[in-house]
Design brief:
This protein is globular. The chain has one domain: Restriction Endonuclease, CATH 3.40.91.20. The protein has about 160 residues and is of the alpha/beta class. Helix content is about 30%, strand content about 25%.
Length: about 160
């Protein structure tokens, strides 16, 4: 809750391309890492009659105390399926108690358009209206999900 309270959507998070990790994602990562959260990948092995099969998971952006956090700011929307499936699998193995997805609300599209960045944040990218149907459709299996959509009210012109 502290990271959500501290976060503001600075103009530079939108105007400056992020490459592999955006400044927005770095804010969340840095804030949580300072409090003991870590990027985590789980190695799962299934053994049937002495035949072992490895089933590695996708890494989780931040993990601590059985809480898994994914930040999906501007990926293609199938990334939600990957995250929810990962939460489902790890919840079934009693490793994750709750999955958290921090994304953007669809209302931010107005700001992106005003800044001339609307095409970079298109309809097929991650935003809350793409996530909710996947959650409601059972995409996370039995894993409880908390989803947060970054709203216009958090936007700041100045850094």
């Amino acid at each position: 809750m502290d990271v959500l309270s501290a976060f503001r959507l600075n103009r530079s998070y939108i105007s400056n391309p992020g490459g592999s990790k955006t400044r927005l994602a770095a804010f969340f990562d840095d804030f949580l890492e300072e409090r003991g959260w870590r990027e985590t990948r789980f190695d799962i092995k299934i053994v049937v009659d002495q035949n072992e099969t490895e089933t590695p998971t996708h890494k989780i952006d931040m993990f601590r105390n059985r809480v898994a956090v994914e930040i999906e700011w501007n990926n293609k929307d199938p990334f939600y399926d990957r995250d929810l499936n990962n939460f489902r699998l790890l919840h079934g193995l009693r490793t994750v108690s709750v999955g958290v997805i921090i994304t953007r609300s669809s209302e931010l599209q107005d700001i992106f358009k005003e800044m001339g960045r609307g095409s970079s944040y298109g309809n097929s990218t991650t935003h809350l209206s793409k996530l909710i149907p996947r959650i409601e459709g059972g995409g996370a299996g039995g894993c409880p999900i908390l989803s947060f959509g970054i709203k216009k009210s958090l936007y700041r012109e100045m850094d």
